[in-house]
């Protein structure tokens, strides 16, 4: 693929994909182990009836956020880091490149370590194999990402139906073991959590992923396809992950479906689920890193950046630093959604629903209004006790709308470097 997935330009009409392809890649991305763990915390805190409504509301809000960005991505052919040039400036967008890229490489390290540790524990391999396995998976999982959208599409078309089948088998077995919904309704919560906190958990777990899902929704042939595929992934797919983790905890006291399948006696299926679940998220994660890295460095060499990112992630995994990164990565998740708020406001309010092409756009070094709105949104998210991710999005978008109306010298865009010379 000579274009290497257009890391620095719009996706042309000739490279656009249909509903099946777009949905498969996005669903593979949202089938994420950490989401099941989040669902496990909900399963301990709510009865089944209330739990189902919370899952629906939380994932619907998450889905609508991802859909709004997906529509813009498909209309423009750009991903979030390229949109960042318009709302943050040519140099200002490097801030979003760094935050998005660092978050993804941290999660890649976590996934690389996780599959090695779980595989050794599950199969009874000797512990000394953990580090060689981390190296193997650290570089192995990036192969489909190096190929690009086409490679992830091939993997997802096989992996997503297989994982759906494994989940259905596990859920059916679990319902039989607990004597159906009647048995579930008799389960009593063991922990306490407010509804607002539960919705925050659902949204916060994967809203950073929703911000970067534009890497694939921009390949959709039409905005309708982008919207349907994204909603299927972030409402249905992510909701299924939350529900799976919640039911696993309620029935077996295990949130991860791999552990649940082992408890149910499906060891072979558990190992397959482990590989497919981690791989379909890992290749998307390192692809996200590569796209952000290409924009940061202004290079078309996406495959080289992909391998470099895999090497960094593998070193972090082998060094045991992935455990230290988790709290910081979760914190960064608070600061990512406001970027989406600024992007939406910039696209609709400043550019009236249509970006100029990147090669013809006259962009400033720093869009001070966009950067200020992002800072306000990130601050609001950090200090908000209620639904921080959504508060960050709303405050960032609202702040940008207000700042666009203010004509003040300090808010003026910084001129491009070429214009200053």
UniProtKB/TrEMBL annotation:
One of its GO terms (molecular function) is cytosine transmembrane transporter activity. GO terms for cellular component: plasma membrane. Keywords: Membrane, Transmembrane, Transmembrane helix. It comes from the Bacteria. InterPro entries: CodB, Pur-cyt_permease. The keyword DNA-binding does not apply. The keyword Ribonucleoprotein does not apply. Pfam families: Transp_cyt_pur. It is a multi-pass membrane protein. CDD domains: SLC-NCS1sbd_CobB-like. It is found in: Membrane. The chain crosses the membrane at residues 20-39, 51-74, 95-119, 131-149, 158-175, 195-213, 225-251, 257-279, 304-322, 328-349, 370-403. Belongs to the purine-cytosine permease (2.A.39) family. This is Cytosine permease. It comes from Vreelandella titanicae.
């Amino acid at each position: 693929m000579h274009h290497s997935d257009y890391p620095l330009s719009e996706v042309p009409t000739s490279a656009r994909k249909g509903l099946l392809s777009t949905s498969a890649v996005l669903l593979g991305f949202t089938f994420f182990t950490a989401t099941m763990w989040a669902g496990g915390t909900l399963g301990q805190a709510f009865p089944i009836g209330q739990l189902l409504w919370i899952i629906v509301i939380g994932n619907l809000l998450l889905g609508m956020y991802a859909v709004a960005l997906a529509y813009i991505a498909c209309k423009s052919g750009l991903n979030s880091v390229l949109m960042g040039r318009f709302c943050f400036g040519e140099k200002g967008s490097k801030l979003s490149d760094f935050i998005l890229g660092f978050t993804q490489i941290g999660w890649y390290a976590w996934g690389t370590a996780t599959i090695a540790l779980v595989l050794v524990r599950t199969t009874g391999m000797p512990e000394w194999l953990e580090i060689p396995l981390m190296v193997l998976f650290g570089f192995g999982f990036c192969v489909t990402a190096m190929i690009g959208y086409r490679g992830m599409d091939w993997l997802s078309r096989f992996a997503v139906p297989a994982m759906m089948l494994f989940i259905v088998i596990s859920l059916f077995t679990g319902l039989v073991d607990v004597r159906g919904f009647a048995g579930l309704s008799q389960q009593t919560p063991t922990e306490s959590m407010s509804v607002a906190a539960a919705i925050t958990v659902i949204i916060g777990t994967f809203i950073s992923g929703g911000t970067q899902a534009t890497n694939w929704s921009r390949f959709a042939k039409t905005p309708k396809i982008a919207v349907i595929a994204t909603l299927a992934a972030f409402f249905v797919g992510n909701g299924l992950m939350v529900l799976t983790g919640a039911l696993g905890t309620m029935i077996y006291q295990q949130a991860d479906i791999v552990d649940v399948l082992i408890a149910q006696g499906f060891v072979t299926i558990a190992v397959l689920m482990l590989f497919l679940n981690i791989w379909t998220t890992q290749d998307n994660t390192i692809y996200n890193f590569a796209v952000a890295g290409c924009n940061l460095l202004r290079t078309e060499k996406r495959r080289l950046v992909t391998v470099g990112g895999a090497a960094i992630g593998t070193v972090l995994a082998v060094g045991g630093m992935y455990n230290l990164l988790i709290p910081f990565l979760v914190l960064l998740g608070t600061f990512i959604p406001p970027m989406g708020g600024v992007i939406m406001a910039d696209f609709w309010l400043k550019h009236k629903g249509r970006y100029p092409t990147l090669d013809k756009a006259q962009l400033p070094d720093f869009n001070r209004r966009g950067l200020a709105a992002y800072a306000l949104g990130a601050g609001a998210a950090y200090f908000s006790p209620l639904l921080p991710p959504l508060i960050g999005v709303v405050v960032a978008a609202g702040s940008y709308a207000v700042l666009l109306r203010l004509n003040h010298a300090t808010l003026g865009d910084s001129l491009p470097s070429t214009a200053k010379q």
